[in-house]
Amino acid sequence: MENIVEFKNVSKHFKDFSLENINLQIKQGLVTGFVGANGAGKSTTMKLMMNLLQADEGEIKVFGKSYDNNNEKEIKERIGFVYDSNIFYESLNLKDIRRIIAPAYKNWSDKQFYDYIKLFELPLNKAIKTFSKGMQMKTSLALALSHDAEFIMMDEPTAGLDPVFRRELLDILKDLMADKRRTLFFSTHITSDLEQIADQITFIQRGKILFNESIQDIQERFALVKGKANLLNPSTEKSFISVKRSSNEFQALTNNAEEVRKSFGDQVVLENATLEDIMYYAKGARHQYV
């Protein structure tokens, strides 16, 4: 399967934060969820993908091309960025926006634009300032789809949306991805959304990629482990990424569920770990990589 994005040993340094030696592949036709706490490096990574920032070390390719050698316009023609807030002049309406944006894209289709405006039930003649947050999100998505973007990047698309609209948006995205022609990179704090739609999860923490793998593999590999506190000692604790203790019991996260089953047998209970569980326990991990 072709990689839409490739980072090879990419680093970016700031005064108080660094992305360190990032290796990342985003595969064509899949939904990749991008998770991490505030300040983990999600926005910096996405800006590097868009060439809004340049790496200090390493190599970045999008569609197999680097941004040098006059490739930037060609690459960005094929990318659609869906923002989490309004980026347009509030007094403009959708007809105004179409008139400004359409000439910038050689693959712009008025038919697709008006089809998506109808599908998303967006008013053409009302000012953007009258749009709800959900309508603004639909507007960004309609514009990305109208120039036939192959790689769609979404930054917190469901944040602040009511539960009904969040579900509606996820259904729209599932339909868009059904033919595997597009690739979706989905940054969010709402990990339950990713558990519904994602094929792949990339987890970044403190400027390092902790894992980038299929959601199926994550579900098989990670587990919450519960048992009596007297089972813990320096040797057994090596089976866990992080442990939470009470006086008599413990709860921990493992990234090797099968090994824990073999080692502890029926002395412990294993439960499925959600992405939120993994993020919570990884934050207090004894070792850096999970």
UniProtKB/TrEMBL annotation:
Keywords: ATP-binding, Nucleotide-binding, Transport. SUPFAM superfamilies: P-loop containing nucleoside triphosphate hydrolases. The keyword Nucleotide-binding applies. One of its GO terms (molecular function) is ATP binding. Residues 5-231 form the ABC transporter domain. The keyword rRNA-binding does not apply. SMART domains: AAA. Pfam families: ABC_tran. This is ABC transporter ATP-binding protein. The lineage of its organism: Bacteria, Bacillati, Bacillota, Bacilli, Bacillales.
